[in-house]
# Entry
Amino acid sequence: MDQYERFDITQKPRKEKFFLTPVAWLLSFPTVWRRKLKINKVGMKGLKPPYVLICTHHSFLDFKVTTKAIFPHRANYIVAIDGFIKREWLLRNVGAIEKRKFTNDTVLFRHIKYALEKLNNIVAIYPEARYSLIGTSSILPDSLGKMVKVLNKPVVVLNMHGDYLTQPVWNLKMRKVPLKADMTKLFDPEDLKTLSIDEINASIRKAMTYDEYQWQKDNHIKIDFKDRAKNIHKILYQCPSCHKEHQMDSDEHYIWCNACGKTYEMSVYGELKAQKGDTEFSHIPDWYEWQRSEVIKQLKNKTYSFSDEVIVEALPNTKGYINLGNGWLTHDSNGFSLKLKNETYDINLEKEPLSMYGCHVEYDYMHKGDCVDLSTLHDTFYIYPMHKKNVVTKIQLAVEELYILEKEKKNLT
# Structure
């Protein structure tokens, strides 16, 4: 990959250009007004930039909700490198700070510190590092508490509701859903000095907790959208009746198993009901967490593994994706191994379990299929399984649980 120019991660963040601020407001406000966004602010009176804004991550709507929440101020946003493709000038000049997902990046910390101390800006961070797959909280890095303690600036959490239900990552067609956000100041600098990192992390995780399907049920939000369950089988990949994996399918408001034939209907209030027999999980996140428990069993029994021929694309810079050809991806208790060798490229990428607390997956990405992306500090590889279908959600669950298991082993030893 040395033949390609890399994205320049050393450029310092900038304040948003004054002429771009009205554009950002124009692109954001009509959307949130139509969805009757309500922002519940707690402890925010009198708080002005700079401060750290930690946000939940559901869909592209998050950025529009955040824009309204911090009005009339603007922020430096942490943005993944794929957001910069063919629009680097624009992203840099609205204050975006580039990040390659799930990498340990000390340069990013320096940029955040610069934006807070020199630009006197808000820095908006989405530490879940991907859109929520099932509308519930994702794992957060342990380093988050240490970072905000060292930065020693006020910490605010923006916990959004309705963004996921409007546009879930597995079906990007927009639904009509009202929006709400809780904007809470968690810490002043004086608090950060006295609290331990564990206490800081615990408070952040509590403030970041959400369950969008429970929120929908509690608020009686009706989503009468014909295709409301279409593609949800990409998340709910294992049948709770026969326990077969990767045999699920879905369309309109139904999800079913091609192995045993059991079918479930998704109601307008986001609940599941079996058409025949018992309903194992009426609450959709419960199905997802059951799959997680099955993955944990396989990891502990040493029976988990994934291996397949893959198509590999690289994103070294913001000019676009580079097709590297076919390779081979393996994921097991040793972590990831990506191997590719042809006349032009020779890739041998190993990612140990403790190097990633999570991973980023996409569904039918760019209409090319489901993919996993793996990053180093200088490269990002988009990896598309060629023969095994509906597998990336399980890989993501396995990455999270491998990290936890390996961390427990390390603490014990």
Observations:
- The chain has three domains: 21-218, 232-300, 306-412.
